[in-house]
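Issue 218. Parser rejects a valid record. Input:
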Amino acid sequence: MQKRILVVGSGRVAGPLIDYLLVRGHIVTIATLEAERAIELVAGRPNGTVVHLDLEDEAGLAKLMQGQDGAVSLAPFPFHINVARACLAAGVHLVTTSYVSDEMAALHDEATAKDLLFLNECGLDPGLDHMSAMELFRAVKDAGAEVVSYKSHCGGIPAPEANDNPFGYKFSWSPKGVLVAAKSSARYCEDGKEIVRSEDEVHRHTWTIDVDGIGTLEAYPNRDSMKYEELYGLGHVPTIIRATLRYDGWSRTVAALRTLGLLDEEPVLGEGETWAELTARKAGGGGAGEGAAQEEGAGAAGTDEVRNRAAKFLAIPADDTVLDRLAWLGLFGRDVAGDTGKPPIDALVNRMIERMAYTDDEPDMVVLQDEVIAKFPDGHRERFLSTLICKGEPGGESAMARTVGLPAAVATSMIVEGKIVERGVRIPIEAEIYEPILTALDHAGIRFEEKREKI
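Output the parser choked on:
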C-alpha cells in the first residue's frame, strides 16, 4: 500500500527510519539542509528523493507538505510545532520522537477534528520506554496485583568493547542535545516521598543498577517522572522514577562542567581565548596566566596551575578523576576554545565531537530496563522486569539510530496504511498503538527480555 511520506530532517537517527519506509514501498521525500548525507540514504532507490529545506521557511515547508499522507519530524525540538501546523493545514498525519510540548498538546482538538493522528514520543526514550512499561502494567493487572513501584532506566552508551575513553561516553546523537538535556531539573517519588532535584542537583544524586550481561551502571533522574502516574493510568504509586543510564563517573564530571560554567549558553568567549584561560577564568576570575598558556603537556606548571584552580573552585582534590577527564578533554590546555562571542557550551560540544565520536568500527549500545514491583492480595510481592539491550553494527547502523528511528518508522507506516485509527495528539500508551509497533520491532530484532520473580 504505497503512500507518500515527508521526512523533515536527516540527522543521526534517520537512516534506519528512511530505509524501513523505502523497503515498505512508500514514496519518501527527505527535506533537509544536509542534502549530501540524505542523498546517500536514498542512493539507487527511485522512490526516495531529497529536497533542500530551511526550517525557517514555513512557506516552503507548507508547499512540500501538500499531497503527503504522513510526515516524520526529525527536526530540532523547537521546529516540531512548525511541522505540526503545516500538517494540520495540509491534512497530514505526523510522527515525532520528542516529548509533547505544551504547544503540541494544544493542537489535540484540531487534529482530532481533522481526523489526524499526531503521535509523539515514539522513539527510544521517550517511546519504547512507554511501550515496555504499558506491557508490564498490563501483565501485573492480568495477574491480579497492583503496581507499588515503577522504575525505568535508559541510556545510550558505548558497547563495552568501545568504552575506551575516561568519560565512558561517545556521541551517537546530537552532542548539544545531550548537554542541554543534562541541565534539566527532575521530579520523582520514592517510598511515598516526592523528591525535586534542581538543575544543579540532578547529577549530584545518583545511584547504581545492575544489568544482566552488562554489569553495574550509574543512573540519575530524568525530568518529571510524576506526570506519568496520570498518563499511565496508575493513580498514586509510592515509587515512580524515570532515569538515565551512564557508565560510572559521568554525572560527577557533568556536574563539574556545569559548576565551571562550561555548559553556559551566553556568548562569553573572548578573542583568542584558550581552554586554559577560559577554565581558569570560570574557576575564579582572571586569566590563566603566562604559565597556563604554555604548550599542553610540555607546560606542566601551567597545566597544574589551571587544574589546581579548578580543583579549589570545585572543592575536590587535585588528583580527583573528574579533573583527569577534564584534562583528557584538553580543558587545561592552550588550544583556542572557540570563535569569539560564542557560548562555552558550543565550544565544549565541538571539543567533545573531536575527541568523543565513534569510529566506523566501534559499536554503541542502548540499554533500557523497566522494573515494576507488584503487590498481590495475599501480601506477597513480585518483580516484573523488561530489558532491552541493543548493540550497533560496526560500520553499519548504530543502536541509537535503530531504537529511535525504527519505532517512528513502524508507527508512520502503520498510520498511513490505516492500521492505527487513534486520533489527536498522543503518545504510544494505548494498546492499539503500541502492540503492533512492538510486534513489528520484534521481527526487526528489537526485542525485550522479560523476567518475573518473587521478592
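Fixed in the parser; the record now loads. Confidence is low (pLDDT under 50) at residues 287-301.
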